[in-house]
Amino acid sequence: MCDFSEEAATFPQSGRTRQIYPSPVGWIGTGQPDIEADLLVKLGPDTVMMMGDNPALPRMPEKPRLMDFFKYRFGDITVRHLLSSGLKALESGQDEKVVMACLLHDISNGCLIRTDHGYWGAQMIAPYVSEEIAWAVRYHQPLRYFADEAAGYEYPESYHRFFGADYVPPEYIRRDADYARNHRWYMTSRLVTIYDYYFFEDVGPVDPEIFTDIIGRNFREPEEGLGFDSSPTAHMWRTMIWPNNFL
Ligand SMILES: [Fe+2]
Ligand SMILES: [Fe+2]
């Protein structure tokens, strides 16, 4: 029998055990066992694979906007890092495009994927920001590994701790940093690396509202909501709305 109640519409699998099979990219190589076969064996009339809204996560608005992802999906450290990076750029009197790139530079780490985060993040935001902002987000990743003393950027001390003092970035990172260094938008991306502050530095809580106008002028929120327009990256936003979908 169909249940047309509001709850059933929001949580179409309500009343059943919703099993979650975490995306392989999140656990492969970590030593966590592959549980797919075990979950499939347990399927039955009352046990299904998770699809749609997960009651364990905050409900997203029907037409999500950029800041809803900060509020309802992104991890705490990423949110603090992005807001403080944007704030530092703003306080330094940087152009809005730089502030916006700082605010979005690690967006992929919030709830999607960390590997090659600059590249994923740039792709995800590209339909909604200027080409230069997406470019700056993409290239902040390779540029982070290379000092530019004239611009006031040193190799990050945190990278020594993250990766070990003898870490050498791979060839594609060196190639892309070289390309970026000779590009007309180099300084936009370099400024992102300069304001790439980590959460443990001395920045108090930042009110996301201070970015409302800048977002309004530099981020085209789709009428249908992020994830539901027909942009080439809508699926990436949907993946963050429903990160536990089986398919
Ligand atoms: Fe980054
Ligand atoms: Fe960062």
Account of the 3D structure:
The chain has 247 residues and is mainly alpha-helical. It has 2 domains: 6-49, no CATH class; 66-241, Orthogonal Bundle (Hypothetical protein af1432). Helix content is 47%, strand content 2%. The chain has 14 helices and 2 strands. Strands 1-2 form a two-stranded parallel sheet. Helix 5 (76-91) runs antiparallel to helix 6, helix 8 (117-125) packs antiparallel against helix 9 (131-143) and helix 9 packs across helix 12 (186-194). The chain is globular, with a radius of gyration of 20 Å. Mean pLDDT is 94; it is low at 1-5. One fe (ii) ion (FE2) is lined by residues 105-106, 117-118, 140-141.
Helices and strands in order, then pairings?
Layout: H1 6-10, E1 17-19, H2 24-27, H3 36-42, E2 47-49, H4 66-72, H5 76-91, H6 96-104, H7 107-111, H8 117-125, H9 131-143, H10 157-163, H11 171-181, H12 186-194, H13 212-218, H14 234-241
Parallel strand pairs: 1-2
Helix pairs in contact: 5-6, 6-9, 6-12, 8-9, 9-11, 9-12
This protein binds fe (ii) ion (FE2) (2 copies).
Search tags:
binds fe (ii) ion, globular, mainly alpha, 247 residues, disordered N terminus, 2 domains, Hypothetical protein af1432, single chain
Proportion of residues in β-strands? under 5%
Report, as a whole number of angstroms, the end-to-end distance.
25 Å
The secondary structure category is mainly alpha
Oligomeric description of these chains: single chain
CATH topology of the largest domain: Hypothetical protein af1432
| Lateral arrangement of strands in the main beta sheet | 1-2
Mean pLDDT: 94
| Whole-number total of structural domains | 2
Helical residue percent band: 40-55%
Radius of gyration: 20 Å
The biggest beta sheet is recorded as: 2 strands, parallel
The helix-strand sequence is HEHHEHHHHHHHHHHH
Hetero groups in this structure are: fe (ii) ion
Instruction: Please state the second-level CATH architecture of the largest domain.
Output: Orthogonal Bundle
What is the CATH superfamily classification of the largest domain? Hypothetical protein af1432
* CATH class placement of the largest domain: Mainly Alpha
